[in-house]
Amino acid sequence: MGDTYADIARDKGAIVKPETPVIYAVKNEDALHIIRELVEQQSADGIEFERDISIISEDEEFTYRYKDYELETLMLNMLGEHQKENAALAITALIELNEAGIVDLDFNKMIDGIESVTWTGRIEQVKESPLMIVDGAHNNESIEALIETIRNYYHRDKLDVLFAATKGKPITSMVDQLKEITDTFYVTDFDFHKALDKQTIFDEIKVDDKVLVDDCVRFIENYEGEGLLITGSLYFISEVKAKVTF
Hints:
Elements: H1 5-12, E1 21-24, H2 29-41, E2 45-48, E3 53-58, E4 61-66, E5 69-75, H3 81-99, H4 107-116, E6 124-127, E7 131-135, H5 140-153, E8 159-163, H6 171-178, E9 182-187, H7 198-204, E10 210-212, H8 216-221, E11 227-231, H9 234-243
Parallel strand pairs: 1-2, 7-11, 8-9, 8-11, 9-10
Antiparallel strand pairs: 3-4, 4-5, 6-7
Helix pairs in contact: 1-2, 5-6
């Protein structure tokens, strides 16, 4: 993938095929412009979130609308507005496949399936007291969605953060966002060949209250603060869940 939103859009735009529906939700204006251009060039049937597809959120429930379809009071197991958007894209894809005669869609089964989906390590509460949340956010967009969910669903302004990352990730901008909801910022690393050394992270980030953690498993198991968010990498979260008894 490229380094800019525009480059990434060009790479991912390779999925756009002539006279074929393509369903997308793109927030960056440069990337959206490129996807729209590719859709036009290929004479594809572009189906765009917020233009053709809409959702209306009310707390944890939402209503889905597309064409003449309206599905009310949908509720997901996964938290976050971004997950509602993802679900809306999946529903739209199934509707398009049904209209093309490729699948015979049972709407009740589809709704049951959408509402029962879980994703381990994505805004997952693993402990109630003290509150512990794990999330594999590993780029700026997923960090932004994570922060929004912490505020809107957990109603927490501040948490302690335990952070580890892999090489090649935009850790400075990720941490700059996380600072908004951070009390103490704990930095660690984990046993993975692409893991970024904790000292490298510690030296690079600009956080006033930051602490190095040598043994993340022991730290988590002995944590007695008000609330801990564990994030930075899906690989990190996988190791934490494999080694920590919550």
